[in-house]
Amino acid sequence: MVMKTPEIPKNESERLQALEAYQILDTLPEREFDSITEIASYICQTPISLVSLIDKDRQWFKSHRGLDATETPRDHAFCAHAINHPETTFVVEDSLQDARFSDNPLVTGDPHVRFYVGAPLVTSEGLAIGTLCVIDHEPRKLNDAQLKALRSLADQVIAQLELRKKMRELEALRLTLLEKNHEAERFAHLISHDLKSPLRSMVTLSEMIFEESEGKLNESAEMGLVHLKSKAEHAYKLVQGILNHSISGVEAIQPEKVNLETFIDELIRFCSPPSDIHVIADVQISEAHMDPTLLHQILQNLISNAIKYNDKSEGLIYVRVYRDQDQIIIEVQDNGPGIPKEQKDKIFVMFQTLHHQDRFGVKGTGIGLNTVKKLTEVLKGTVEVVQEVDEGATFRIRLPLA
Q1: What does the DSSP assignment read for 341-379?
Q2: pTM above 0.70?
């Protein structure tokens, strides 16, 4: 028998353009995608699961659980067959009994694929750019519930890709707004409005998968799913809050009782500091009455900046919350490069940036600190920088107690 080479889809040109538009190929591993493949392996009980993207001459893995390789030739790829059937889940129960694959190098050699199921990753335009697939070394079958869960997880992969694409489109919009001298209100409104739908979809899919798999996941997979769901829920609430404020301004403030210890703890976890950055909280006030959406947005920007621009081998960030007469003081202090004196008056200006790139190689937008200043003012507070260059930076926020 001779291995069957996968056919090239009739819409190959449009398909490759759609894949390129996501700017995902050859990027580093990310927890959001690795959580999806971990859950897929657990639900389908397979040793291997992959987020596979079909490029012109190769299949490249954004996430590869149970497999060391990061790519294989497209001619050998089971997934290259699967994308020709975007409306169905592609199933090979026993590759040695299938004339298309029995002498495939991925069957006769590593990783010895005997069983394969691929749920196509289909864009909103109906273009299949790859698959979320599971693989085993023995022939077998999946039940209907497993197939449904795999397709739902494939939808989650597309939701992640669409969200990132939308963020890049909004960055291009930011440049247009800069040229036209528009202020942050319109920009924030557009971001929030355009992101609500994909974020709501991510929350809904996460909840559905969690409900269907409750009590069946191992601890690691369950933590990954909870992390994914928590991220989506936080982002959705923030986007909704920003949208409300951009539309209604001060009238949209919705103060409520906030447990500050819990709030700061959850906020630090949300910011996901890397292992070489230590965030230490000292919260001396148990509760306050304020708008949690605005406070979250303010402190997320400050903590995220302290993480992104820290240049030390061991980064330290202190978050302090204490009372000073009739005010709440919140300080975010880091041991990073600090703020030069000549830049102190510019850092809160819209679209002004001090650094070309952060520690992850990403160029800043100059929106974050402007947002901090404006939202602090909405809460009738003030923000200032109280330390100089080479000593790190300390941002101090003063908010009324009531």
Answers
A1: GGGTTTTTSTT--S-SS-TTSPPP-S-HHHHHHHHHHHT
A2: no
Fold of 12-151: Beta-Lactamase (3.30.450)
Helices (H) and strands (E) in the chain, counts: 10, 13
Domain segments of the chain as ranges = 12-151, 159-252, 256-400
Query: Per-residue pLDDT for 207 more than 80?
Result: no
30-57 confidence digits (pLDDT tens): 999 999 999 999 999 999 999 999 999 9
- Compute the residue count for the chain: 402
Identify residue 43 by its one-letter amino acid code. Answer: I
| Distance from C-alpha of 380 to C-alpha of 360, rounded to nearest angstrom | 34
pLDDT in tens, 268-306: 888 888 888 999 999 999 888 888 888 888 898 899 888
* Cis peptide preceding 340, ω within 30 of 0: no
Cα–Cα nearest to 371, from 174, 175, 184, 178: 184
Type of residue at 175? L
- The CATH code that applies to domain 256-400 is 3.30.565.10
Identify which of 31, 18, 21 has the alpha carbon closest to the alpha carbon of residue 269.
Answer: 31
C-alpha 4 chain-centroid distance: 37
